[in-house]
Here is the input.
Amino acid sequence: MNKNKELRKSLFYLLVLSIFLFVCLFFTFYIQIKEYQATNDQLISSLLEKVKEEYPEVTEEEMLDLLNAEEVKENDFLKQYGIDLDKEALSLKNQQRLEKMLPISLFFFAIYLIGIFLIVFFYNKSETKKIKQMTNYLSKINKKEYDMDMLSNSEDEFSLLKNEIYKTAITLNEQYLQSSEDKQVLKRSLSDISHQIKTPLTSITIRIDNLLEDPDMDKKTKNEFLKDIHRKVNNINFLVQSLLKLSRFDVHAIVFHNQEVYIQKILEDAIKNVSMLCELKEIKICIKNKTKDQLFCDSKWQTEAITNILKNAIEHSHKKDKIIISYTANKIYSKIQIQDQGKGIPPEDLPHIFERFYKGKNASSDSVGIGLALAKTIIEKNAGSISVDSKLGKGTVFTIKYFKI
Here is the structure.
């Protein structure tokens, strides 16, 4: 009740009306009693004077004893003159006053009843109006109309309910928008997958057709075709897996399981993942200034991000080049730098290298343009950032910072 402003207001009006009625009735009855007493005293005084004149032997003490007697005997003397004291006053003047005061009392009582009715009526009308508002709001929500300004600063139950409905509407709207966005992301991802695998699948189909049409193909050519098919299948597998991971990030379906992990461990696991590629190009990866610094992160995903960056570095490196990894830490962030000695990235390509399916001028024919985009997404999801600096003919440096939050 303390929180219901309308109810408190209605009760206040009812209290004021009750006090007003009590005061009016009190003064009405007070005046009536005083006038009734004055008339009675005048009549008794006149009667005593008359008795004294007619019966001088009656003393004043006897008359006063008669007036102040504790027991008054029932007397039917006046009834023979048609006066019933149970129904009317002995004095005609007093009877008139009684009949005059009765309508006044009834008038005040009627005002009181009308006031109560009006208070209850307007209170119910106000409550009904609020219920209709709630109904309209819920109806709009059911129609997916969420652009409603429903916040209220009052503290009654309806205002609290209104605020909760507003919060629910906002939540539903966000879920609706997120659902629509998720559908668009899924649609775009499926379109990307379809577009990106179309060319390698066509190439694979041609190679297989050649093998089927020429069963006597020389062994060297056949092996080249099979290696080409194997490489393209691996590329397709990498592409599909990467796109699916990106799609899961887009729809917030991936939850990181963060814990303290040594940076050294992440880097060593990433190097193991690219060991076969390093052997093919005789590339050596070195880790400088090894320390016991740790990251609070999901080691599995951050290892994948570093792996993709190393793959990019290997792709752009020359045979027998060296890739150097260094890392440092301070109170604000931990920094990892991956530096290659490769061909470098043209200045016009630098702003786009983290975009999906972007292939720079120096990209290899097997590049699908998805690895760096996935790496950037993973790093940023773990409170990190990634930047790149490159010079043509001198190599590229990727700088990753994990901020301590």
About this structure: The two ends are 45 Å apart (CA to CA). The chain has a mean pLDDT of 77. The chain is about 60% helix and 10% strand.
